[in-house]
């Protein structure tokens, strides 16, 4: 009986995970898939044959990048497949495949019957898309070196490697926990009840709850590290990186898996930035730095050099 209960619990967990990963999206049963084919086209695959005249009509399609719903892409030509099950849409401008696109297909006609309309989200291979979110937040769009966020904690705790790594790990835990709570709160409370204007207030409250939990745990587990953090642990509550992540998640309408990847990547990116900076600043303590540049001035110079180095990743595409 115990084994049966375990299997039931595992099945429920799998179902919940699939629902969260899929983002609770509904799709028309007659549309098998829609994917990027090249820089300028998207191919739609149907479950059966569609009417050629309907397929060639530009008015039956509408598409825009998910972050920019007001900007409709212009379709230059439409080529139906010879098997009548595929339709190739070509666009005047190159498609930004790093962004998911919303494709509207109106009044699908098959065998002279109107099968209704549908909305399909077109994006890269899903696990590739998740990985690109992770690497994007971690390296390509590092929140410290490309967005210049969280500099108060960054400069304050990067003097020693031990303190920097401890703060980086703490920061990552707080970021992931607060981001996931913020996602759930936004999706199931703020959004349904049209309370989006309370985002910042609610997110600050959830971050405060996470920081208080970490504060209590650190006091008991590692008092020395807690003392080394000093006032900077409290500053995490209103840190711009911590607040930027849930706001980006809400703005892009990420699901649970995408939100987790973004928060994990942003936290790991902050840890990387702290580790690199602390490694250099420990060396600078032994270097013959001019008196006027010692302390924060030389730290800002080093941070600028790191930012220039990270600019080399800009525009990089993983998938």
Low-confidence stretches: 1-26
- Mean pLDDT over the full residue set: 85
* Lateral arrangement of strands in the main beta sheet: 1-2-5-4
SSE order, as H and E? Answer: HEEHEEEEEEEHHHHHHHHH
Looking at how many chains there are and whether they match, the oligomeric state comes to single chain
The amount of helix comes to 40-55%
The rounded distance between the terminal residues' Cα atoms is 46 Å
| Structural class estimated from helices and strands | alpha+beta
CA-based gyration radius: 24 Å
Per the principal axes of the C-alpha atoms, what is the gross shape?
A: elongated
Structural overview:
This protein has 319 residues and is of the alpha+beta class. The chain has 2 domains: 25-122, Immunoglobulin-like; 126-313, no CATH class. 52% of the residues lie in helices and 13% in strands. The protein is built from 11 helices and 9 strands. The protein has helices at 2-22, 52-55, 126-140, 151-156, 161-190, 199-221, 223-229, 232-235, 240-252, 256-284, 296-310, and strands at residues 31-36, 41-46, 61-65, 75-80, 86-91, 101-105, 109-110, 113-114, 118-122. It has a 4-stranded antiparallel beta sheet with strand order 1-2-5-4, with no helix packed on it. The chain has a 3-stranded antiparallel beta sheet with strand order 3-6-9, with no helix packed on it. A hairpin with a 2-residue loop joins strand 7 and strand 8 (113-114).
Give a quick precis of the structure.
This protein has 319 residues and is α+β, with helices and mostly antiparallel strands.
